[in-house]
Amino acid sequence: MKYNPIIIALIAGIVIIVAACLFSNAYRYKFKSSQTITVNGNAKKDFESDLVKWNASYSRKNFDLKSASDQLAEDRELVRKFLIAQGLKSEEIRFEAVNIVKDFEYHTDGKGSSYNTFSGYTLSQTVGVESRDLNKVDNASREISTLISQGLELSSSTPNYYYSKLEDLKLELISQASKNAHQRAANIASESASSLGQLVKADLGVFQITGQNDNEEFSYGGAFNTTSRKKTANITVKASYLPQ
């Protein structure tokens, strides 16, 4: 069977044209896919804590264990009454278990030999407060030192402040940071006489909580400030888009 050379040449030409088109489209797609617009979106929000935790500890020392225990019980009642007088509720106050330490004094005799003697029992207890009334706890943490004049051996810590709706805040900021990233990418595409295509990749940055106006540095692993009552939450989103 003989083939018309004209038809063969025509078919060959069509095949070459189709192959060239396919190759060209594939190349353009590969080139286009490798050219992405990558931006960092940011969102932050100032907020105030709605939960405070604070604790203080007190201690007594005595050669007699029962006497030390009785004295500590009196101190506990003194602390409880003080906190109630500050407007705190009984359910907001928690007394931890009593810690007992048997103390010794170490000596060295004239021959260089060391020995120790019993110096008494030290009993200590921690009281913790957790409340949503930040003002009352702040005031109590400042005023509790007045109990020292009543013979109480007391040590008070700094209150720690938290936010009970932190997860909702985080989701809100992720949404805002994502929109910010999209807007930045759209601006870049517009300036390049192009338009923004689909999102191909998105990475969530570290969630940071810092004190307001504290010049607190961000941490690589994420900052979580608990010492400031007023805070600032910050999050970033890194997004990559295809131009079109």
Structure description:
Helices cover 36% and strands 36% of the residues. It has helices spanning 5-34, 65-85, 134-143, 166-191; strands spanning 37-48, 51-62, 93-95, 99-108, 114-131, 153-156, 160-162, 196-204, 208-211, 230-243. The strands form two sheets. Strands 2, 3, 4, 5, 6 and 7 form a six-stranded antiparallel β-sheet that branches. Strands 1, 8, 9 and 10 form a four-stranded antiparallel β-sheet that branches. β4 (99-108) and β5 (114-131) form a beta hairpin.
Annotation field: number of helices: 4
By secondary-structure content and strand pairing, the structural class works out as alpha+beta
Low-confidence stretches: 26-33
Q: Assembly state here?
A: single chain
The description of the largest β-sheet is: 6 strands, antiparallel
